[in-house]
Every structure is written in structure tokens, then in C-alpha cells.
Write a structure and sequence with these properties.
This protein has 772 residues and is an alpha+beta fold. The chain is built from 17 helices and 43 strands. The strands form 8 sheets. Strands 1, 7, 8, 9, 10, 12, 13, 15, 16, 19, 20 and 30 form a 12-stranded antiparallel beta sheet that branches. It has an 8-stranded parallel beta sheet with strand order 31-29-28-27-23-22-21-32. Strands 33-37-38-43-40-41 form a 6-stranded antiparallel beta sheet. Strand 9 and strand 10 form a beta hairpin. The longest helix has 17 residues, at 447-463. It is globular and about 75 Å long.
Length: 772
């Protein structure tokens, strides 16, 4: 094992630049210790090369050995801080440059790796040190990073950012892919990080939560991309971030939140803290699909995948068999009656996703859901009649919010069990734009709140006859610092463990009528606990507008066969209005039909859900739409029939890269509209360029490959499709079948060129099946 000489930062600063240069030259001439080069401490294999500054441990090179580094080497005040630690008693972050001593060593025992250590920090205990271990596997393009803090307990640390990649080298056609729930892609990430004023911005996504998976990818068309991930199988609180920094630089990092000791007298807190998982940094050739495939190779062997409810065949049969969801709000006549009518028209199993059934105001009065606003008797009678016609109901119950202006908030002293920040305070959340009523997030780590929610859910299932609970905000988590709660303050795994207990309690109480449980968004940590996940990013423009991101099926590319997914904001109308909201802010005509110019946006949203393997969903459906908007409803039904016939691909298939095809694009009118958008200012309209067809490729469990295609335009689209059958695991000339809504036909063997030409009718859709 070779070791560099310890270097004191004060001594280095005292040396002249000429002397430093002379020393480096002399080192090179005399023979540097193994693992060092004139430019830094080197760790490499044929796939990946890392170099660290021997003076302070800064990362000065990262990338494929035969390509340009993905980070730029900087010095002086711009030198990269490999880590930053925020301490509870300091306003400024602790960084490597504050260390008076840095030394490094190569790992022994045949391991390929480095140990980097920073110590002697002013004002901190004499034994305090930060130790990073970086390893590189043989034949891998992935490095693994661990971190240890000695002589300082976890409760002294607020958060740790490590490793930090700064600055990322600027390249052509950069892309940033983030699994923000379903997934999103930016084709201009640097512009997102500096805004209109040029001021640096930070974008951070918490995990487990809005970040549905522990990875992100920054790549370009001009060479290898950067892959950032963690190998945590316990769902510890963490975050991934990208950020701008002066002057015009960008970086990315993983941020970690140590779980603090509970402060029990018998439990002396450890004087050390160690990252309970490893961060992975690597390079890859390709795009976000390549990154998803790399993550999938690890993720689908994790407990949440092997124990997912879909893989174990546990979701209620009615959920798996649902061909079309109706997402309506209000009393039973506004929800169940439209569903019955649509089921008759489509000839398919329809289920309802039911908001505003409850007796309280939406986003204000939670969790005072019972009794239903139309009364328990009328509600349960209407639902029983719908059951008689094959309709099932999933009802809304937010699983973490409590309205702070409700009577029950004070009567039950609910504030005791709410999430507290590091200052011990509740952070109110305001969602209702009309009442401005604050809500508090209840702590999933407290048995009291879990019992409250499970009791409400069980009552709705047993006494009202609902078929399942939509647990809003389920795929999110928060860090709670209340030391009176029975969980470690700060980060940790108690949130997902608490949710595991909550769903188990609900299912145990309702064992005689097993309910379906759904959650907002999607998240790998919830796969063993939720039957159904809501993927609303298929209609992202409708609630987010043109925000610099486009939706991608990142989560489906990894976990599609492990999770049932549904959901769509796709609507033909203006939003509804809750009858319990203030009359003064009600629109003149809730549910008024939107202009037909937005019909292509409607079809785009439906086409994405179809091609990306989600159960079709329509929002704010009225029976009158069967005549007033026949073409749009026919399109939804067409896709729903294809989905129902080809569930082995579109519900149980594994995501594949779509075949190569040139899809025409056009600028189309878009509406930004949600229940809180446009009530006072009208529809927010903008234009956006979108493809005129959407494609998705899936491998069924039997090995057949299905290609889902949907034309969003009213004109026919002629598509030249080129297949890579080897990538699909098929022989060079498989048999090809064409399936439309009502017909299927054999197209014969795939030509030796691997190409076929297909014309999709206006508003048409099909599934191409490639068989061995």
C-alpha cells in the first residue's frame, strides 16, 4: 500500500506557485507514489477514470479514459468542495478547505479504491475527521462512495452533501433526466438553473417522495453521460439536486439527512456517523433509457420489487381488470351515473376515482371525511346500486393532512402528532386557493395518527361499502424532528416503515372485504404496500404549463411489471367547483366544455397513458359528452379496448426502447387548467410543439414484443418503422401482427431490412406484435 505524505493546507498556501510547480515536476521525475499523477491521485480501470487533487482531495477529473472529463478542473476559490456538512450550531457549511490536514491512502487487500481523510478543523473536537472511501469495481463504469464522520454524533449534523460534482463540463445538446415521480426530461438544463435573471438556482428532489427512484442522469449527444444513484434498499431520507453556481457553472450532488438519537437516557448517542448506503457515480453511453436500464438491473432485484403487490398477485381483481377509470368529483349522481353510462357505451369494465364524496371541504377540512356529504344512507345505497352494475369505487382520503382550522384539530390535540421542523415548529401547508386554510402534515412515524387514519378507512370500507382508498400524497415523505415522537428525529426510515404499518392495519381490519389501496404519484419504496399508483405526468402541461420539462416514462422503464398505474388530468371541460367552497369564488359555469382547439392536447394525454402502459383514465366525464364530444370519447374508448386486449404488454410488460421511427411534430394549442387554475382568470392558453403520434414498446412475460402506437392528429400519419430485433431478443425475421380496436391481421415475416411502413388513420391506434 502506498501513501502520500500528509499535506497541511496552511503550508500549501504559504508556498509560492513556482515552488509548487517545481515540486510537482520533481515528483514526476523521481517517481510518484503508485496511484498519483502530476494532475492528481488517480483511480481508474478501462471504463472509468477519477483523479483527485493531492492537496485537498478535490475531484479534478471524472469520465471515461478515452473521452473528455465530465467535470472541469478548477483551483483556488473555485475548487470543488467534494462534500459540505451543515452542523446544527454553525450557520456556514463545513467544507474540505477548512481542514488543516488532508491525507489519502490506497485500499489494501486487493481492493481498487482510495481512502481520503480530512482532519484538524478549528473549533471542532481534536479527533474530528471526515473519511471518504471511493471504490471502483473491475470492468465497471461505476464508482461507489462511502462517508464516515468521527468524533461527532449524528445529532450535531443537519445534512451532508456528498459527493458534489462541480462544475460539470459544458457540452452540446445536454439533457437532464430525473425520476420526478413518473419522470421528466429537460433539453436545456443549464437554462433552468439560471432563470431569466441569470441568478443561480437550485433544484432538489426528496427521496423517498417526489423522487420515485434514487438516480438521475445528465448526458449529451457528444459523449458519455453522468449517472448518479444510491444503493439504499431501506429508503433512508435523502435528496438529489442540480444547482447553478457563479460564474455560470452547474453541478449536481446527493444530500443525506442523518437520523438523530431519540435522546433516551439509557441510549448514549454514538460519537461517529456513517452513511448507511453507498452513492454511485458512473458514466454511460446513451440516453435516459440507457440510464433506466442500468438502474433497473439493480432495482428489480431489491426487496420492494420482489415483494411488490402486483408481482405477488395481490391487487383486488377488479383493479387489475379495470379497463377505464372515470375521475369525477361530488355527490354520487355526478360520479356513479356517468360511470355507468360510459361502461354501457364502451362495453368495458369501468371504475370510479372519487373525490369530494366526503363531508368536509376539499383541501381544508381533512380528515373530517365522515359522514359523506349526501349522508351515509344515500351514499351507500347509490354505491350498492352501482356495484350491481359492475362499478367499483376508489374514494379520496388524504393520508397525511389535517386542516388546522377544523374543530377536530383542537378537540383531538392533533398538533402533538404533526410533523415538526428542526426548530420544533409545524410548517403549515396551504393548498386551497379559495379558503387559504392551512393544513398540517401528520407524522407517519406516530401510531396515533396511523390509528386515526386506519379507523376512518375501515369505517368507509365496512359501513359505506367503498371498494378502496385513494391515499393522497402517499408517495411522499417528510423529515420530522419532534423528539417526543417514537422515532429518530431527522432522517431515517421511519416514514416508509410507518406507512407499511398503516396499510397493514387497514388490510387487517378489513380482511373480510380486502380493499384496494392507491397512492398519488409513484415510488419504488411503496411497491410492496400500494395496489395502484397514480401517474399524472402524462398530462403535465395541463397543471404545470410550459416549465422547461417534458414528461417521460422513467419509472415505467424500470418498474412497469411491478406496479399497476393509472391516472390522467385529461378532461374536455373546465374544472368542477366544490359546493363547500366559498360561493364568491365559484365560476359562472363549472364543467363548461373547453374549446375544441384543445382536443389534440386531450388526445396526446390519452395517447401517452396508452403507449406508456397505464390504465386509461378520463376526468370530469359527463354522459352528454357521448354526443357533444363523440370523437374524443371514441378515442378514449378505442385506446381502452386496445389496452384491455393487450394487458400482457401494457400492464405486465417490460419496457423496451421504441423502434426507430420519424414521427412528425406540430405546434398545438395547450390549456393549463386544474381545480385551482382558471377559476378567476380563465383558461391559461399556450402553444407547444409535440409529436403527432406516441409510441411505446413492451416485452410480454412470454417473450413476445408489443409496439403500441397512437395517432393524436386528425390526419393519417405514415410511419416508417425500423426494428432492432436482436435488442428485443427476437430472431431476425419474426412474424408481425397488426391489432386495431376491433381487428387483427397478419403482416407476415419482418422483411430482412427490419423495416415496415405503416399508415395510422387519423385518431387511430394499434398494437404491433412481433412473435417468434
Amino acid at each position: 500500500m502506498s501513501r502520500s505524505e500528509p499535506t497541511t493546507a496552511t503550508q500549501l498556501r504559504a508556498k509560492k506557485a513556482v515552488a509548487i510547480a517545481s515540486a510537482l515536476v520533481g515528483l514526476a521525475l523521481l517517481g510518484a507514489p503508485a496511484g498519483t499523477v502530476a494532475g492528481g491521485i488517480l483511480l481508474e480501470n478501462p471504463q472509468l477514470r477519477l483523479a483527485f487533487d493531492p492537496a485537498n482531495g478535490s475531484l479534478v477529473e471524472f469520465g471515461a479514459p478515452d473521452a473528455a472529463s465530465l467535470i472541469q478542473s478548477e483551483s483556488g476559490s473555485l475548487a470543488n468542495d467534494l462534500w459540505q456538512i451543515q452542523l446544527t450550531d454553525r450557520s456556514a457549511a463545513l467544507t474540505p478547505r477548512q481542514a488543516q490536514r488532508f491525507h489519502w491512502a490506497r485500499l489494501g487487500g486487493g481492493a481498487s479504491g482510495l481512502r481520503l481523510c480530512w482532519s484538524e478543523f478549528e473549533g471542532l473536537p481534536s479527533g474530528f475527521a471526515i473519511e471518504a472511501v471511493v471504490t471502483l469495481g473491475r470492468g465497471e463504469s461505476l464508482s461507489r462512495w462511502s462517508l464516515r464522520v468521527t468524533a461527532l454524533p449524528a445529532e450535531a449534523i443537519t445534512k451532508i452533501s456528498y459527493p458534489r460534482m462541480l462544475p460539470l463540463a459544458k457540452r452540446e445538446e445536454e439533457r437532464l433526466a430525473v425520476p420526478f415521480w413518473l419522470g421528466q426530461l429537460s433539453s436545456s438544463p443549464r437554462s433552468l438553473l439560471f432563470g431569466e435573471t441569470g441568478a443561480p438556482r437550485r433544484l432538489e428532489w426528496p427521496y423517498p417522495g417526489y423522487l420515485s427512484m434514487q438516480c438521475l442522469a445528465w448526458y449529451s449527444a457528444s459523449g458519455p453521460g453522468l449517472y448518479l444513484a444510491c444503493d439504499d434498499t431501506n429508503a433512508f431520507n435523502k435528496a438529489f439536486a442540480v444547482f447553478g453556481a457563479a460564474p455560470g457553472r452547474v453541478g449536481c450532488e446527493a444530500t443525506h439527512f442523518p437520523e438523530h438519537a431519540r435522546g433516551l437516557p439509557a441510549a448514549a448517542p454514538s460519537r461517529n456517523w456513517e452513511l448507511p448506503y453507498r452513492v454511485e457515480l458512473g458514466v454511460f453511453e446513451g440516453d435516459w433509457i440507457t440510464a433506466a436500464e442500468q438502474y433497473r438491473a439493480w432495482a428489480t432485484n431489491c426487496p420492494w420489487a420482489t415483494q411488490s403487490r402486483l408481482k405477488r398477485g395481490l391487487p383486488p381483481r377488479w383493479m387489475s381488470d379495470t379497463a377505464l377509470w372515470v375521475w369525477n368529483r361530488g355527490r354520487s349522481e355526478a360520479v356513479l351515473t356517468p360511470a355507468v353510462e360510459l361502461q354501457k357505451a364502451a362495453g368495458l369494465p369501468v371504475s370510479v376515482f372519487w373525490h369530494w364524496w366526503h363531508g368536509c371541504s376539499y383541501d381544508s377540512g381533512f380528515p373530517e371525511y365522515l359522514p359523506p356529504r349526501e349522508g351515509a344512507g344515500p351514499f351507500s345505497n347509490a354505491l350498492a346500486a352501482a356495484h350491481g352494475q359492475g362499478i367499483h369505487a376508489l374514494v379520496y382520503m388524504n393520508q397525511r393532512l389535517w386542516g388546522m382550522n377544523t374543530a377536530s384539530w383542537k378537540e383531538k390535540s392533533a398538533d402533538i402528532y404533526a410533523v415538526k421542523n428542526a426548530a420544533g415548529l409545524i410548517r403549515p401547508e396551504v393548498y386551497n386557493s379559495f379558503t387559504r386554510d392551512p393544513c398540517a402534515s401528520m407524522c407517519m412515524g406516530t401510531p396515533w395518527w396511523r390509528n386515526e387514519y386506519a379507523t376512518l378507512a375501515a369505517t368507509a370500507i365496512h359501513e359505506l361499502g367503498v371498494d378502496g382508498i385513494y391515499m393522497d400524497q402517499a408517495c411522499t415523505s417528510l423529515a420530522c424532528y419532534d423528539r417526543a415522537h417514537p422515532h429518530p428525529p431527522g432522517g431515517g426510515t421511519y416514514w416508509i416503515e410507518g406507512f407499511q404499518e398503516l396499510q397493514r392495519d387497514i388490510r387487517t381490519r378489513c380482511a373480510d372485504a380486502p380493499p384496494g389501496l392507491a397512492g398519488e404519484g409513484c415510488g419504488e419504496a411503496w411497491l410492496p404496500y400500494l395496489d395502484l399508483m397514480l401517474g399524472l405526468q402524462v398530462s403535465k402541461e395541463r397543471y404545470a404549463g410550459a416549465d422547461g420539462w417534458e414528461p417521460i416514462p422513467f419509472f415505467h422503464a424500470v418498474y412497469h411489471p411491478y406496479a399497476l398505474s393509472y391516472g390522467n388530468y385529461s378532461s374536455l371541460t373546465r374544472p368542477p367547483y366544490d359546493e363547500l367552497w366559498p360561493a364568491a369564488t365559484a365560476p359562472p359555469e363549472p364543467l363548461a366544455l373547453l374549446d375544441r382547439k384543445f382536443s389534440q392536447q386531450f388526445r396526446l394525454e390519452q395517447a401517452r397513458a396508452f403507449a406508456w402502459g397505464q390504465q386509461p383514465t378520463i376526468a370530469n366525464f359527463l354522459p352528454s359528452h357521448l354526443e357533444e364530444r363523440r370523437e374524443e370519447i371514441d378515442y378514449v374508448v378505442r385506446l381502452a379496448r386496445l389496452h384491455a386486449k393487450h394487458r400482457k404488454f401494457l400492464q405486465h410488460g417490460t419496457f423496451l426502447r421504441s423502434p426507430k421511427l420519424q414521427i412528425p411534430r406540430a405546434v398545438i394549442p395547450m390549456s393549463r387548467l386544474s381545480i385551482y387554475a382558471g377559476q378567476q382568470g380563465g383558461v391559461k392558453e399556450f402553444e407547444h410543439e409535440e409529436p403527432l403520434a406516441v409510441c411505446g414498446a413492451w416485452r410480454a412475460p412470454d417473450g413476445e414484443v408489443g409496439i403500441a402506437l397512437a395517432n393524436t392528429a386528425t390526419d393519417p400519419q405514415r410511419l416508417a418503422i425500423a426494428f432492432d430485433t436482436r435488442a428485443y431478443g427476437l430472431p431476425p425475421r419474426p412474424r408481425v401482427w397488426l391489432h386495431t380496436e376491433n381487428n387483427h391481421s397478419a403482416l407476415g415475416r419482418l422483411p430482412s431490412s427490419g423495416r415496415i411502413t405503416l399508415t395510422l388513420p387519423g385518431q387511430g391506434a394499434c398494437v404491433l406484435i412481433l412473435k417468434r
